[in-house]
Amino acid sequence: MSAFKRKRGGQGLIDNKAKKVKFIVDLDEEPSETEQDKKREATIPAPVSLGKWTNKERVLIFSSRDQLFVINEVCEIKNCNKCLFFEAKKKQDLYMWISNSPHGPSAKFLVQNVHTLAELKMTGNCLKGSRPLLSFDPKFDQEPQYALLKELFIQTFSTPRYHPKSQPFVDHVFTFTIADNRIWFRNYQIIEEDASLVEIGPRFVLNLIKIFQGSFGGPTLYENPNFQSPNMHRREIRLAAAARVREKQMVKEIQKVKRTEAKEDLEKDVTADVFLSPAEEKPVHIQTEAPEPKVAKKKHKAFKRQRMQMARR
Q1: Which of 43, 101, 204, 313 has a CA positioned 20 to 30 A from the CA of residue 135?
Q2: What 8-state DSSP symbol labels residue 141?
Q3: How far apart are CA 222 and CA 148, in angstroms?
Q4: Cβ 117 vs Cβ 202: under 8 Å
């Protein structure tokens, strides 16, 4: 067995500097002079978490209906140079601003398909305060607007090195993927056994609207030509639904007309006159004078006795 021995005793646990330690081999017998010569010293570097904290990025996350020009003042009061601002409209549309305060740039997104942890019920999990890895799609390096967004995401979502509240381990990863002209966000847990990924949640989709040169405004650097406002999208849905209703009404009217025509055809039998011969046409005689009165002839009735005699004969 081997024992670990420090020169300063227990003070090495709280000292930030590197330490020199000795390793001694414990034997049943007392160590000889040659074994004592084999004692060697080793230097252990200071812990990584006790390094110098140089990246002083601070992110302010809040949601409100305030004016955008007030947000820069709030960031200055809170001593923050990054901001995530969530703006809700009409109780159904959610917009997200990501900004480098106070000089910019900033980007505005429409948040779609939001699914929370309670809704998904995923099996993944991560420790509170752990540092996430950031994974980006290769398409972020192919176009300039996505390269700018990638740098904004790195400065906003990454954990500064040697941050006093960060933990010295990594157990989950944030992924940003570009598909269908949108940015898809996912949060996965890293399994230690085989380094596989299990989704934790939440998940959402970011639809880019504009990129501004300043913080929450200024000249427009990029505008998404494929973006469609939620109001226009809902209007198209209503128009499509109305067109379907009109189509159904037209189909009903056409079916009604067809049923009426079929009923008329059944009432008139075209085969009824097959066996009828046409009648001879008689000339029309118009009588201009009154007809002569008819004379009634009286019949001679024999007497009863004569009828009896005639019957005997």
Answers
A1: 101
A2: G
A3: 11
A4: yes
Local structure of residue 149 (DSSP, 8 states)? H
Phi-psi domain of 217 (left: phi exceeds 0; alpha: psi -120 through 50; beta: other): left
Q: What is the pLDDT along the chain (313 residues), one digit of tens a residue?
A: 333 333 333 333 334 455 555 544 444 455 555 555 544 555 555 555 556 777 777 888 878 767 888 898 999 998 999 999 999 988 889 999 999 988 889 999 999 999 988 888 888 888 877 888 999 999 999 999 999 999 999 999 988 877 787 777 888 999 999 999 999 999 999 988 788 899 998 999 999 999 999 999 999 999 999 999 999 999 999 999 999 999 999 999 999 888 887 776 666 666 777 777 776 777 777 878 877 887 766 665 656 677 777 777 6
Domain boundaries, the chain: 59-232
CA atoms within 13 A on the CB side of 281: 2
pLDDT for position 301 = 60
Residues in the chain: 313
Q: Using H for helix, E for strand and C for coil, what is the string for 97-108?
A: EEEECCCCCEEE
CATH (residue range 59-232): 3.40.50
Distance CA 166, CA 129 (A): 6
Q: Please report how many Cα atoms fall inside a 13 Å half-sphere around the Cα of residue 165, on the Cβ side.
A: 5
The whole-angstrom separation of Cα 289 and Cα 272 is: 42
Give the Cα separation of 207 and 113 in Å (integer).
10
With residue 4 as reference, give the H or E element that holds it: strand 2-6
- The DSSP line for 49-88 is GGS-------EEEEE--S-HHHHHHHHHHTT-SEEEEEEE
For residue 2 the two structure tokens come to: 């081997």
Whole-Å CA distances, 55 to 58, 168, 169: 9, 16, 18
How far is Cα 135 from Cα 188, in angstroms, rounded to an integer?
Answer: 11
